[in-house]
Write a structure and sequence with these properties.
Length: 573
């Protein structure tokens, strides 16, 4: 039912356009049904009697009806295509916007390759079915029923083969559609698999080459492609069988009609009536084929709609508050109270009862071994995810109660692996402040020590910053954060790809640029945290120490071990 629910939701605002399509389809179908009767009149009452005037009059009527039918068909197809493309556009936008509201865990659960497939291929299947439905939903049943009625009007005795044909076609169609559904689902899942393997191989092409695994990865892609080919072939067998069966059944019915009609002509049936009868049979065949085309698309569209609905029906893990707070009591203050966090499906918590207070205008550094929860803590502060237990407060207000816009404006984040978007240096730097002037961009680039490789703001940046080194990407991400000028800076190991000299210059520039702002810095290198106002040591998700660099050297065994491993015994004291 997901398909019909989605179509009803997106066609309801366009009900006037849909009604216009229905009227035009009904008009063109009625015109088509009227043409064979006019043709029969021309043959029986005009040609055989030699009445030229009647032939001309009925011919003129046929020409007018044909023009009207053609115009109605053209308008109906044009409007149907427009409605279908708008439905596809709205569905893509709905999926995209809804995904933006999901937590990172929910996005990971659905899978990025699968989300790409659902937003593109799945929506395209629904759009194709919408087009088919709009062009056939009226024309096919009216043509089939109307053809039978008009055939009965020509000759009742010849019409019974048509009555017998309809249930046979229904049974054949139902059986084949039942076979198509499971293979349709398999095809969409196999497309997800191909996308997943392809994304991994493109992103990891350097690793593949470094370990000389091209043949193994080619084999993995070949297996995924073969699975998709196999599922598509099985679906294609059922799909391909439907059309010939329908055509042959209708043709067999036509043979019976022609054979019986030949005997009926001798018993008073007019040649024109027989011609009209055969024309109606052809119309019924065309209607059934149009319906068959819809039926062929239906199983796959149903599967696609269920996959799209699964995304849209996923309750956002980061739902905005019903009554958002739009003003902070103490801007720049960050506090965590008894925060625990566990990733979905994990057995253990990543953070265990973390308490932390960061005063406005101070710099707090967070250090710890790999996997101690440092990056997770920053994700909780900027609400990329919510704590399993406890509360995160920004400016004296719970992060979950803040207006999302206010929360975003209050934070400037530099991720451990910064992401750059395809475009220019300027478009990337203005991501947080679209109205930033060029002088501000150059100033931020200078602070981030990026002016040595950025010669123009219009320099191209490839998707993900693929045309830049790791250090260059980090410096551009730092510049982007500085352009934002937020009261709170969250820096997740922003110097990891920089050499010591560049790091030192960047840290000095940042200290000046962020004066008066709150800075929370995650760092692996001890040198980067020595001058912080406050240092927090995390060990296996717990706060193992807090204080200044000197006090932690004296009182924290975990911190002393970190310093010893990096700077040597003599610098520990």
């Amino acid at each position: 039912m997901a398909l019909w629910r989605l179509l009803a939701r997106h066609l309801r605002p366009r009900r006037r356009a849909v009604a216009a399509v229905v009227l035009m389809q009904a008009a063109q179908t009625a015109a088509l049904l009227y043409l064979p009767a006019l043709n029969a009149g021309i043959i029986d009452d005009g040609v055989f009697t030699g009445d030229t005037g009647l032939i001309l009059r009925l011919g003129a009527v046929m020409a007018a009806v044909s023009l009207a039918q053609g115009g109605a068909t053209l308008a109906a197809v044009h409007l149907s295509a427009r409605i279908a493309t708008e439905v596809g556009r709205d569905l893509r936008e709905a999926v995209f916007l809804h995904v933006q509201r999901l937590s990172t865990q929910q996005v990971g659960g659905l899978g990025v390759p699968s989300l790409v497939t659902r937003t593109t291929n799945d929506v395209q299947q629904i759009q194709t079915l919408t087009m088919s439905l709009l062009t056939a939903i009226v024309a096919a049943p009216v043509m089939a029923v109307g053809g039978i009625v008009m055939a009965f009007a020509q000759d009742v005795a010849l019409s019974w083969p048509l009555v017998a044909l309809v249930p046979v076609l229904g049974v054949v169609t139902a059986v084949l559609v039942g076979r198509m559904r499971p293979w349709s689902r398999a095809v969409q899942e196999r497309i997800d698999g191909v996308n997943r393997v392809l994304r991994e191989q493109i992103a990891g092409v350097r690793v593949t080459r470094a370990f000389v695994r091209q043949d193994a990865e080619s084999g993995r892609f070949h297996r995924a492609s073969e699975e998709l080919t196999g599922a598509s072939t099985r679906l294609g067998h059922s799909t391909a069988a439907l059309m010939p069966l329908v055509v042959n059944l209708v043709n067999v019915c036509g043979v019976v009609v022609v054979w019986a009609g030949a005997w009926r002509v001798g018993d008073g049936l007019g040649v024109g009536e027989l011609t009209a009868f055969l024309t109606y049979l052809a119309m019924i065949q065309a209607a059934v084929l149009a319906a068959a085309f819809v039926v062929m698309n239906l199983p796959r569209a149903e599967v696609c709609a269920a996959r799209v609905a699964e995304v849209l029906d996923t309750e956002p893990g980061l739902a905005p508050p019903a009554r958002p707070v739009r003003r902070m009591r103490e801007p720049g203050r960050v506090e965590l109270r008894g925060v625990r966090f566990r990733y979905p499906g994990a057995q253990d918590d990543v953070l265990h009862g973390v308490d932390l207070v960061v005063a406005p205008g101070t710099t707090t550094a967070i250090v710890g071994s790999t996997g101690s929860g440092k990056s997770t803590l920053l994700s909780l502060i900027c609400r990329l995810c919510d704590p399993t237990e406890g509360t995160v407060l920004l400016g004296g207000e719970a992060a979950t109660a803040l207006d999302p816009g206010l929360l975003a404006e209050s934070l400037s984040l530099v991720e451990q692996r910064p992401h750059l978007f395809s475009g220019t240096v300027a478009t990337n730097l203005r991501l947080g402040r679209p109205d930033a002037a060029d002088d501000e961009l150059w100033h931020a680039l200078g602070l981030a020590q990026a002016r040595d490789f950025v010669t123009t703001l219009d320099a191209r940046v490839a998707q993900g910053g693929a045309n830049l080194s790791g250090g260059q990407r980090q410096r551009l991400a730092l510049a982007r954060a500085l352009v934002r000028r937020a009261p709170v800076y969250l820096l997740d190991d922003p110097f990891s790809a920089l050499d010591h000299t560049t790091e030192s210059r960047v840290r000095q520039a940042l200290a000046t640029a962020t004066a008066g702002a709150t800075v929370i810095l995650v760092a692996q290198r001890v040198r980067a945290v020595q001058d912080a106002d406050h240092v927090v040591v995390l060990d296996e998700g717990r706060v193992a120490g807090a204080g200044t660099h000197d006090t932690l050297l004296r009182d924290s065994p975990v911190y002393r071990e970190i310093v010893r491993s990096q700077l040597g015994e003599e610098l520990v004291g």
